[in-house]
Model the fold of this input.
Amino acid sequence: MRALLATLLIPASIGVLAGACAAHDEDDATSDNGALIGGQVATTAQFPSNLYLKTGCTAAKVAPKKILTAAHCVFDPAMASVRFANGSTISVSRDPVNGFAEHKVKEVHVHPSWVTACEAQYCAASSVTALMDAADIALIELEDDIEYVPSAEIDTTELVPKTKVVIIGFGCTKGVLVRDDRPNPTLAYAIGEIAPPQLLDHPGSPIENDKEHEIAAGNYALTYGPASYRQQAGICPGDSGGPLYRDEDGKMKIVGVNSNYTFFPDQQDKLGLPVSNWHTRLDGNSRQHIAEWLQSLGALSNDSWTKGDGGAGAGKGADQAGTSDAGTSDAGAQGDAGH
Done:
């Protein structure tokens, strides 16, 4: 079950140092206070750019008519095609309790590396996507702007270990393997910290050799999950596509996108608590040069683009709501790797 990537959830793969493993405590890691595993309730006033896609993912408005999310939230692995055709409608909300508003889709841009990788193999399992040399990122372009939602700025500065970040999403709260019985998705956040690549080295991780390490670290930034440290939060089905923020002088800037996670083996973990959380890198030094791709689509402000220098990480080139009923998609309920 854990291997299946429910299309609106989040992938998986990461580890934890031996000393940190002893801190695992299932009772302390769970939370009923909001979304995320171990998160705190968030408000629209705190995070006004965040959105929930009725299909089961978190997202954020990053420019007029442009919504940032994960590729696996909008790409159908069975058909190897985008889920939302040009001219179709997508339902979004800042607070699903108040319903959804429908917006017409102009075009969905899925990063080419993800499309290519999913055409070559069935990319519906976290263990598969964790090994793909591809960027789990997409930009939804709308026909009309969501005027009441402000845009969050994308920061393409490369993240380094120990950087403090804010993890956020509408996902489940108790564990990937625990039924989400909330009547409506709720937004939650948690303070996290960028982890070193060694977090990938743990029992149950699909990352097994130096090349896989290089690919994973080049495409994703890692944060600690609740299975590594009790006080850390874990992304959960429904959080996929959500922004990873960094607080810069009181301004929340997007530095990553929720994508995947890894776990200890089933016999050690009955709740589905991530050891690590994966967030798609947005900087120019990422293997897929995501900053340049976002710039080409008009998703970056002129002063937010830091062009990569081809360094070590580089490689290949609703509140106002509509009439829809609030609720989550079955696809975004329990899966195994896909917020």
